[in-house]
Amino acid sequence: MFNLSGITSSSNKESKQVKVLILGSGPAGLSAALYAARAELAPVVLTGMELGGQAALTHTIENYPGFPDGVGGQELGELFQKQAERFGAKVEFDTAQSVDLTKRPFKITTDNAVYFSESLIVGTGARPNHLDIPGETEFTGKGVSYCATCDGWFFKDKKVIVVGGGDSALEEGLFLTRFATSVTIVHRRDSLRAGKVLQNRAFTDPKVSFLWNSALTDIKGDGVVKSVKMKNTKTGETSEIETDGVFIFIGHTPNTQLFTGQLDMDDTGYIRSTMMMETNVPGVFVAGEVADSHFRQVITSAGMGAAAAIQVTHFLEKASEHS
Ligand code: NAP
Question: How close is the Cα of 297 to the center of ligand 1, in Å?
């Protein structure tokens, strides 16, 4: 076992020594907590600013197995937490401010404490990019969405617009044609970034139309979204169209700033990991969207969390054999 005695923190914050620290309380972090707790590693989860992660922002999750009638995103997060706590996981409402991964135990300074941890699971997630226009925040969950899989069903027989010109916008836009009567893809340029296959499918789908060279400037409504204002990016001409929903897919930003210079990342800031959830630093594992720009589902993140915790268990067993 790693000898953690005698470690002191240079700040006035309380110093805590743990075997497994988990950053993030989304499906990845809380599933990792469940598995690590059941391995009797007494994990501590730091919730970060968003308890439950992005999933908790989803009104109803209907594609997580075991809930045939769907489950509220927040409720699912609470159930994950309760289950992990039942086996001894601790969930702290705290956020990491800095990490030192140069040696073990890793040092993680948070708002309230300084942790020295024998291992680390990074499950800090990713956040959808926002347009940052008037009405966007006000109508989030009331017509504005960043997840067609989660919210598409609520737009049955309604008109929606999709913002973006990448694979996500087209793929999610095509998914929305299952429900909506029309899907208008609004793109700021006159050519798409998305791959040709998706482009062809979108161009030939009778429910899909395109508004080119158009940027949203305002989302308007009355309790729920009613219309959007747009500006032509070439002519500057403004217009307003009625819509029931605005789906925004203009890329994601992984929450990895904390690890810059310490963990290997790809060009877009996602942490590079192996199939075994390992990072370039032995003892630091990843789970969920912080290392996954592709699947972005509750179930895949939860699976990655479980896998990371299993690997942490093996890692700590080996480390104790060699100490
Ligand atoms: P993306 O490829 O970065 O595309 C983002 C789109 O949003 C671009 O068309 C961009 O316009 C537009 N955009 C960015 N900021 C904007 C703003 N402020 N206002 C209006 N429009 C804005 O992101 P993504 O579509 O989420 O894809 C991310 C990665 O996942 C890509 O590598 C993609 O290939 C992959 N992916 C693959 C699949 C698949 O293979 N089925 C599905 C989803 C995602 P510009 O084009 O003008 O820059």
Answer: 18
> pLDDT tens string for the chain (323 positions)?
344 444 555 568 999 999 999 999 999 999 999 999 999 999 999 999 888 887 876 667 888 999 999 998 889 999 999 999 999 999 999 999 999 999 999 999 999 999 999 999 999 999 899 999 999 999 999 999 998 877 899 999 999 999 999 988 998 999 999 999 999 999 999 999 999 999 999 999 999 999 999 999 999 999 999 999 999 999 999 999 999 999 999 988 999 999 999 999 999 999 999 999 999 999 999 999 999 988 988 999 999 999 999 999 999 999 999 87
Query: 189 CB less than 6 Å from ligand 1?
Result: yes
Provide the whole-model pTM.
0.77
166 lines ligand 1 (CB under 6 A): yes
Say which of 94, 111, 150, 292 is annotated catalytic. 150
19 contacts 42 by C-beta, under 8 angstroms: yes
Find out whether the beta carbon of 130 lies less than 6 Å from any atom of ligand 1: no
Residue bearing tokens 């508004």: 211
Provide the β-strand partners of residue 46: 23, 92
